[in-house]
Amino acid sequence: MQLVIGNKNYSSWSMRPWVLMKQTGIAFDEVKLPFDAFTPDSKFKTSLAPHSPAGKVPVLVDDGFSVWDSLAIAEYLAEKFPDKALWPADTQARARARSVCAEMHAGFEALRHHFGMNIEAALPEVGERLLREQPALRADVDRIVQMWGELLASHPGPMLFGPFSVADAFFAPVVTRLVTYGVPVPAAIAAYIERVQALPSVVEWTRDALAEHEFLDFEEPHRSHR
Questions:
Q1: What is the pLDDT of residue 83?
Q2: Residue 225: its pLDDT value, please?
Q3: What is the pLDDT of residue 226?
Q4: What pLDDT score does 36 carry?
Q5: 97 with 186, same domain?
Q6: Which domain holds residue 28?
């Protein structure tokens, strides 16, 4: 299988299936298509066209068959590799995991807009200002803290549903955002953030992101090229 992804420093959606597959030992070849622009004639879009009509990463290619959209990829992998237990075994826990992943997939627009993923950056002053100025962003962060707190209390660690699952892969990019923007969180949430950052898959993704050194102004609303 091949996993087509974008820049590791910026592409939160690419991070989700990559971390999921790496952490659970599902073998794949990485195909990285660096961002240059998102216009139809950009190198990124034209290179991606053979893999996906949606024109977005990530894309999983399995023996010529393409699966796009991170949630669809997770479901495909869960069916293809049932032994990997990508979703919780308990019926209700599995339904709750799917619910929070779908919530992440479809919501948190303010967090996405104001706290773009940028692993290389450290922007605590920006984070403090935006949380003060943007009520919708503050509401998104509060919802994340509430959600994670309830799940960690209901499913004793180390991850949201006990063992590592799709849910942890889906929220791994949110972890990087909270770190980048220096968001203060309760102790239990901070401990979970540390555990996610210590996952071998997240350590490897972070190392690769820091090695890119590709400053893209259209992904950098809070910084200028240094």
A1: 98
A2: 66
A3: 54
A4: 79
A5: yes
A6: 2-84
**E-assigned strand segments in 63-125:** 65-68
Q: Are residues 100 and 195 in the same domain?
A: yes
Cα torsion through 98, 45, 114, 136, rounded to 10: -50
Could you tell me if 73 and 160 lie in one domain?
no
CATH code: domain of residue 9:
3.40.30.10
- 190 within a domain of the structure (yes/no): yes
pLDDT score at 205: 98
Residues 6 or more apart in contact with residue 190 via CB below 8 angstroms: none
d(CA 179, CA 117): 10
| pLDDT number for residue 148 | 98
The answer on 44 and 15 residing in a single domain is yes
Q: How many CA atoms lie within 13 A of 72 on its CB side?
A: 10
Residues 51 and 109 in one domain: no
Output the 3-class SS for 206-223: HHHHHHHCCCCHHHCCCC
Ranges in the chain, pLDDT < 70? 225-226
pLDDT digit string, tens, across residues 179-209:
999 999 999 999 999 999 999 999 999 999 9
Q: Give the pLDDT confidence score for residue 39 in this predicted structure.
A: 82
Residue 60: strand, helix, or coil: strand
How many structural domains comprise the chain?
A: 2
Residues 12 and 100 in one domain: no
Cα gap 99→87, rounded to integer Å: 12
Beta carbons of 221 and 113 less than 8 angstroms apart: no
